[in-house]
Write a structure and sequence with these properties.
mainly alpha, single chain, two-stranded antiparallel sheet, about 75% helix, Arc Repressor Mutant, subunit A
Amino acid sequence: MEDKLQNYENILEITLDTITNFVAIMPRIAEIENMHTTEFYVFLFIGVKKCVYNSQVASALGIKRSSVSMILRKLVQKNLIELSEDEIDRRYTCIYLSKRGREIFLEFLENFSFLTQKIMERLDKNTLKDLNEVFHLINSFSRSMLAERKSKK
């Protein structure tokens, strides 16, 4: 059992090191540095998805709708997102990045793309293919675990 825990601890340490290294390497963007982690995830989710609804954010990130609402208010106050009624169904509010939010998102994406490109340049084609498969496997597995967790509620 202790060997298994050691393996889990090693995986956690590598994951943490990878995340902290990426964070340390990324150029500083003041608006992002002033966000709480969950706020940043919501911001990125909106940036990637373009137009989303509160319930989509809550479901995808596994947080309460009330928490999403509080985060959205903060992002609106910071002029990073805007809200508009859905043209088809006015009961729903579309959440999307504001002009300033889009600028910040694109700056982050540019920095992320630069780092990703540097990694890709250092890997041979087979290693890159293997890495991509591992990321897809982890993503698929985490999605199924999330769906399983939601079904138990």
